[in-house]
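Subgroup meeting minutes
Present: P.N., E.W., G.H.
Scribe: E.W.

1. P.N. recapped why we're keeping a running log of single-chain structure predictions: easier to compare across weeks, and new members can see raw inputs and outputs side by side.
2. G.H. added today's entry (291 aa).
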Amino acid sequence: MKFNQKLVLNKYILSLFEVETLEGLSENLKEERLEVINENGESLFYHALTSVLFENKNLPKEQLLLYDNNIVRHTKTLNRDIKWKYFQYLTLLFTEIYLDMYFKSKEGLLKNLNEFLKQFNDNLPKKEQIERFKYEELNKLAFWNATGSGKTLLMHMNMLQFNHYAKDKIKINKTLLLTPNEGLSEQHKLEFDESNIEAEIFSKDSKGLFESNAIEIIENTKLKDEDGDKTVAVDSFEDNNLVFIDEGHRGSSGDEWKTNRDKLSVNGFAFEYSATFGQAISAGTGKKKLN
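Output recorded in log:
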């Protein structure tokens, strides 16, 4: 099976809409006229979706409206002139659904995912079947976004979405963004400034950065097991962080980026973004590469 055929979480959320493919869900969402907010503060995407869902017990209209209200509110918070494309809106909507389920009941989410996975595996040869989800894996979300699809703005929105659902439910130490190189770190800093989000590029010489509430941007190559002249020990950040990883597999040796991600977020949460997940997975071998 190809990598894109093994995206069980994606298939599970699509099943909540009672469709099997993203194309089936988005077929009536692609008109440019839907990329606006009406006088009631509701996106026209929401109205287009609910016009065809009818009586959906998994995702009633009232629940979808709450998700839509969150997306509209967070978009305004960024204070940028943003009109989401249909695929961006669905990315944000899927994130709303997952975070809501995660913070309401991790046990319930795990049970539902594994029940769906059993059905998913029933149609596959034994050697192609996917391993059951584990409780400790639920605090990770990966986004496979094509180049130019606006993943940076989606990342900013994901921060706001997480903070909304996590409030008073989880203790987060720091918010970190891991990048593969200094050039991308600088780009992210500029984008955070545009969105009025406080962020700093990590430097060991910056006094008080560890005490700051600013998002810390750091290259993967600067995270090591122990402190060095230009590196910092991963354990310095503790393990309950909100971690964002942009193209983590680029510029890293072996699984170092993944090890760092897990150490930093084992008691926190991680969002990961890449335009090249498919190529990265194809280059790896074994089930370990899918985790």
